[in-house]
Amino acid sequence: MIGHCKAVAAVGYTLGKALNDRGFDLDTDLIIAAGLLHDMARVKDEHWEVAADYCLCRGWSREAGIIRTHMRYEFNEFRDFSETDIVCLADRLVMEDRYVGLEKRMDYIVAKAIKNGNDHHVPHILKRKEETRELIGEIEACLGTELDTLMADIDYECPKK
Q: What average pLDDT does the structure give for the chain?
């Protein structure tokens, strides 16, 4: 879980920084914090609620807002991207403790749904996959590079350089 949270923070930071270099105004410290904390209660039922409540008790309301929505988040239009969009996208691109990209991550989620007897979730997962693929296309066009290339030399231990 710690490795996963570090990877989401690192991927989120890398993407946020790259978008800021293209004119966005994203708070990369918030992205790192929310990424590091988003699955801190993953062993609990409704872990997103538990983690968000923990953050709220400490006065971390912006982090709590991101964490509370990360499991069922629907992305903003790309031009309106926020820190929540970045953390949620990073979470969809990381498997365990590494960036794996959309295909591998979503294939894993589909297989897990089927294995757990939740075949009825697969059409919804595939719809979200296609929406996310389109969004990634917009991001890559803006950045002038593929996310796989951007994430090739990522530092999972210390996202800030």
A: 90
* Domain boundary assignment for the chain: 2-150
Mean pLDDT value across residues 5-18: 95
The model's confidence at residue 41, banded by pLDDT at 50, 70 and 90, is: low
Q: Tell me the pTM.
A: 0.90
Secondary structure of the chain in HEC code, one letter for each residue: CHHHHHHHHHHHHHHHHHHHCCCCCCCHHHHHHHHHHCCCCCCCCCHHHHHHHHHHHCCCHHHHHHHHHCCCCCCCCHHHCCHHHHHHHHHHHEECCEECCHHHHHHHHHHHHHHCCCHHHHHHHHHHHHHHHHHHHHHHHHHCCCHHHHCCCCCCCCCCC
